[in-house]
Design a protein that fits this description.
This protein is 22% helix and 11% strand. The protein is of the alpha+beta class.
């Protein structure tokens, strides 16, 4: 928050493209929802979330265990940039990048508001306790059995 209490925070005054690296990274609430395996319906193009985590997802912290090398280690890992964020329809409704992109306020539990990543877990926004397995432990043909709806919803307690 601003020191003087009067100035608006950067996420309310800057376009995504104007943010510094540190500002951009701080928009991520480390919920881990974007690190869940997603399946695309070949016929409709619809994206379906699963409760399967990326092989690099730390299920306790809900963050990447090798963030700097993630795109080398995971071929389909998408690096979120302002251009990517503007074009991705599947970003969870609780995602800080999506909220700012859509001109919405960050929620009470977001670390930039609360001052702590613990509130992301308290509000049940994170994937903590909800990941059934990591991707390298599930056969590709079995992943459809892990499709879930909760990553596309915001719990009532988190609104």
């Amino acid at each position: 928050m601003p020191v003087d209490g009067n100035a608006l925070p950067f996420w309310e005054t800057k376009a995504l493209e104007e943010m510094s690296s540190a500002e951009w990274e701080s928009l991520c609430d480390r919920c881990g929802r974007c690190c869940l395996v997603k399946l695309e319906d070949e016929d409709s193009g619809d994206i379906h979330f699963t409760d399967i985590g990326c092989k690099l997802l730390c299920v306790e912290t809900c963050s990447c265990s090798n963030y700097e090398s993630r795109q080398t280690l995971v071929s389909d890992c998408i690096k979120l940039t302002p251009v990517e964020v503007r074009g991705l329809a599947w970003l969870p409704p609780s995602c800080g990048y999506r909220l700012v992109r859509d001109g919405e306020a960050l929620r009470w539990w977001h670390p930039l508001i609360s001052g702590s990543y613990a509130t992301v877990h308290k509000a049940r926004i994170s994937v903590r306790g909800r990941v059934s397995a990591l991707e390298d432990a599930v056969e590709v043909n079995d992943m459809v059995d892990h499709i879930v709806k909760w990553p596309t919803k915001v719990p009532k307690s988190a609104k």
